[in-house]
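Quick question: what would this complex look like in 3D?
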Amino acid sequence: MIRKVSYLALGVAMGAAVAVLAPDALQAVAPKAFATAADTYRQLNLFGDVFEKIRNDYVEKPDESKLIEAAINGMLSSLDPHTSYMDADAYREMQRSTKGEFGGLGIEVTEEEGLIKVVSPIDDTPASKAGLMSGDIIAGIDGVSTQGMTLDQAVDKMRGPIDSAVTLKIARGAKKDMKDYKITRAVIEVQSVKGHVEDGDIGYIRVTQFTEKTGSGLRSTMEKLKGEIPADRLKGYILDLRNNPGGLLDQSIEVVNDFIDKGEIVSTRGRNPDDAQRFSARPGDDLSDGKPLVVLINGGSASASEIVAGALQDHKRATLIGTRSFGKGSVQTIMPLGDNNGALRLTTARYYTPSGRSIQAKGITPDMQVLEDVPAELKGKDDNLGEASLKGHLKNQAEDLSASQAYVPPDPKQDKQLTAAVDLLHGVKHAEAPAPAPAPSTTPNEAKGDGPKTDAAPVPEPTKSN
Amino acid sequence: MTRATSYLSIGVALGVTGALIANVVSAATPGGSAGLSLYRLVFEKAFDNYVETPDPTKMTNSAINGMLASLDPHSNFLDAKALKDFQTSMRGEEFGGLGLEVMQDNGLVRVVSPIDDTPAARAGVMAGDMIVKIDATAVKGLTLKEAVDKMRGPARTHVAITVERGDLKTTKVFDIVREIIHVQPVRSRIEGGDLGYIRITQFNEQTYDALKAAIAKFRSSGVNVKGYILDLRNNPGGLLSQSIRVVNSFIDSGEIVSTRGRTSDLYQEFNARPGYNLSEGKPLVVLINGGSASASEIVSGALQDLKRATLIGTRSFGKGSVQTVLPLGADGALKLTTARYFTPSGRSIQAKGIEPDFKILEDIPDDLKGKVQSLGEASLQGHLKNGTDEQKGSDAYVPPDKAKDTQLNAAISLLHGKPPLIKASNEPAK
């Protein structure tokens, strides 16, 4: 019996994930026709022939593990963009990340005018112990200038194996005094759920990814908020899933279950019809006391986030505000390959919301579409291109939609989506979103008259932990 | 015993080649490695559990292409159809196409050279152009073979090619009508009144015979030929065997080239056979430029080392490796880099190229400035390394009007006893 993990996220490194045992579902494979089995055998032999020829005849002695890795990557790239091979190191990183941990420094960073800036060091991490301060500019990482780096690239460079060292060149203060900090990476725990009281009577909950700790994190956050706002004053909750790339399937189910008491949450279907699995709410797990709920989504809300948003929308349990979500409607299973060989991350199923729709390459359209004001320098760069624009994505009939806004202003006062959510829960009519339902069918860009945006720019996120 | 073909060319399919039978024994070891069992494990898991029923042939082809791409830019998988096209092209047979020599570069397809007198050359497609779109299909993500398949087609059908040219990435669209491409490897004429000009566009199975015929034609023309100009500019290469015969047509004895594989028993030396020299010792100038690669470099390197010819032009491409076509039965063949070659003096030109004796630059029209360089082997991703003094980038422009062809005119002057003004040593190569 192989332990398998169902995983739903866009990226690996940043992403979430929690282990779910999908017991026999994947073993039950449709019996293959003899012809197919013979063909498979022939293809394996052909590959073996080519491999042997390279091994024996190539002009230089090839690195066999490099050859095999290139072959496996090539093979998997012919399937879909979410299927990939993880070598032993990458697999360990992924496991850590699903646990909500990674090897890093413990700072939240953001990008401002092309500079990588420290938002805040996290308490009790190597970064805060080394004396990094909020507002510091990271000018270099291990001797490489951050000029021209994207936020993601800078974050990748700062992350690394536990106990390894990294040297940051820091510019501080108005004089931009430069100083090097040598910092040793440690295990950093990701806080996947954060909450606070918004406007005195609303419980605001931000879920950044779905890790093993998300379900428990959400429960404790809701308990804390209930302690801070008396039940008779609590107007409702805002669940912020913007730029949440996804994570573990079982955690997304738990999150939905915290807001509903019964009914189907999601179903998954693999290649074999017998593989279908339905996940339903367990009665008694609903913590929300039926209080109104607004879910915030945007073009960076993917996968597990879309399961949550889709289920709560289908159940009419929440009003969705924001922009159309990413559109990743597939489930990946992590299959360990044993013997320090790493693991295979394979797309094994599509998922369907309770009403039976697949959001693959379409995304979820919010009930109220609200666009953020994008600063001039980010115009055209703030869109997430979405699943439908990924090469080799699983097709979903003719109407695949791509590109949706994914910008969240760093200053909450300028966050129009958040403001719309607060207004809705306070019963204020919102000028920009006259019709809560049915969902508008136009794309955000058309609605705003900005014209199509197709730049393949990184998704700006307000902050990234590292 | 496996039948195999030694092949030397940059670029595939639309070009060149000729078949040399080298007997390369593929000693298939039975059993397999740990790597191979990992591959099988992943293949089977993916095949059994993927969300849709995958196509095992597509999976395998992608795996093989991925593996070969990790080796070097000249190792390719030819499926059954690609192999057939390849053999057609090696035999110099006809096909419906544009007349382009192309190669994979950074996920796109780069023009090595347009073949003379083809629709592509007439439309103005140039060496170095990056093909980004074929009709409405983006090239990014296509394999070289897929791109070539899209460009080929029946004669008199249209295809629109979008190319990016130069650093400024000017985009140009060419609407080209396909023709039957007659791969004519040799063209010849009398130049400067008494010089035999021979242009070899590629080394396919017919190259040597065509060269012999060209020299015979000079003899029967009544002109007393004083010397020869062998033009190898923008010749991307082809068959090793043919390059050896071409050299032998100008020398009587001596080593022409040697090839070295991974192990010492794969060493092969090729020597001139007496009685095959067709040139009667007449002076010889060889023209090369940044588009002269592989088999062209064997020829110019040997003739330079043996002091048989004076080389004029710009530094050559720098492809110093030999590919062998290893048949895979009904599945096609593997074109694998199996050896490096060395000129008679023992130098490898891999990623360095051959420096001409006289470096002569063509005058490049303003609108083409900076756009007609061949980047050379050294700038290809994953090329075989060759020490620290690798050289990249060399002009590859030949003016369509021969009156303006400075390199050709320098060759004519030299053979008429007037050395060109610029000596290689005065003009340090960059």
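Answer marked as accepted. Chain A touches chain B through 58 residues (CB under 8 Å).
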